[in-house]
Amino acid sequence: MTIDLHSGTRPAGVDAAVAAARRVIDALVRAGDMTDADMSDIADRLNAVADDLDSSSPPVDDRLVDMWRGDGMTRHDPVAGRENPIAPPLDYTAVDSRTIEAEATLGLPYQGPPSCVHGGVSALLLDHTLGVANGWAGASGVTAELTVRYHRLTPLFEPLTITARQISVDGRKIRTTGEIKAGGETCVSAEGLFIAKHPPRPR
Ligand SMILES: CCCCC/C=C\C/C=C\C/C=C\C/C=C\CCCC(=O)SCCNC(=O)CCNC(=O)[C@H](O)C(C)(C)COP(=O)(O)OP(=O)(O)OC[C@H]1O[C@@H](n2cnc3c(N)ncnc32)[C@H](O)[C@@H]1OP(=O)(O)O
């Protein structure tokens, strides 16, 4: 069974609030202490927002059930999740029946070397994208091995194409590859071994 690549939007403004939080994260990293803003006041205001959210949030077990509803894409993961402010977020489209891709431009919160994407962030994006390609191709599982090769530095502030394709399914073993490209050049490639295993979703 394949999955819908889009997790959809919710009407309550959640996506807009999370997008605003993403802006805040980006703006904080950009400002550092080179700002005239009153950072103590900003901390108070951000803490007030967090207090509002904390006081109105459901028990975590209820939220876990909500996060995992359905059988396909979720909205909370740290790569494509519209409800997760640390996700860029990637938005996948199908290339063919085993291949997906997304475009993203990453900013300062994802920095490793100067003006370049952190290698761990690239590995995260690829791990997840390989996993979603498996869901799209119809045989998915958990990552057992991920081999990542860094060919050249991956730039911040430039459009990146992240692609993944399922290569083979042999019993429970699923092999999947992917890459991150900038300007048509491969910056990072990955090979993953996934094992068909589906931890039960909280219900
Ligand atoms: C987030 C959950 C996703 C699940 C997918 C669900 C639905 C898909 C829908 C939508 C897709 C959307 C999003 C998904 C996107 C991303 C996925 C998230 C990726 C992750 O973030 S996931 C977390 C990190 N991941 C782990 O936390 C795994 C922990 N680990 C284990 O859970 C076990 O360790 C396991 C299951 C790996 C194996 O355990 P096991 O007992 O089930 O199987 P067993 O050991 O018998 O191995 C069977 C055969 O695989 C070979 N084999 C096993 N491991 C190997 C290895 N490392 N290297 C080489 N070969 C290996 C054996 O050698 C044997 O081979 P043989 O049959 O030939 O002897």
TrEMBL record:
Keyword Cytoplasm tagged: yes
Transmembrane helix keyword on record: no
Domain RHA1-ro05818 N-terminal helical as annotated: residue spans: 5-62
InterPro entries named among the record's database cross-references: HotDog_dom_sf, RHA1_ro05818_N, THEM4/THEM5_acyl-CoA_thioest, Thioestr_dom
A GO cellular component entry from the record: cytoplasm
GO biological process, one term: fatty acid metabolic process
Superkingdom to which the source organism belongs: Bacteria
Keyword annotations from UniProtKB, A to Z: Apoptosis, Cell membrane, Cell projection, Cytoplasm, Fatty acid metabolism, Hydrolase, Lipid metabolism, Membrane, Transit peptide
Top enzyme class: hydrolase
GO MF term set: hydrolase activity
Membrane topology category: Peripheral membrane protein
Domain Thioesterase stretches: 117-186
Compartments it resides in: Cell projection, Ruffle membrane; Cytoplasm; Membrane
Catalytic activity: hexadecanoyl-CoA + H2O = hexadecanoate + CoA + H(+); (5Z,8Z,11Z,14Z)-eicosatetraenoyl-CoA + H2O = (5Z,8Z,11Z,14Z)-eicosatetraenoate + CoA + H(+); decanoyl-CoA + H2O = decanoate + CoA + H(+); octanoyl-CoA + H2O = octanoate + CoA + H(+)
Alphabetized Gene3D superfamilies for the sequence: Hotdog Thioesterase, Thioesterase/thiol ester dehydrase-isomerase
Enzyme Commission code(s) on record: 3.1.2.2
Family named by the database record: Belongs to the THEM4/THEM5 thioesterase family.
Protein name according to UniProt: Acyl-coenzyme A thioesterase THEM4
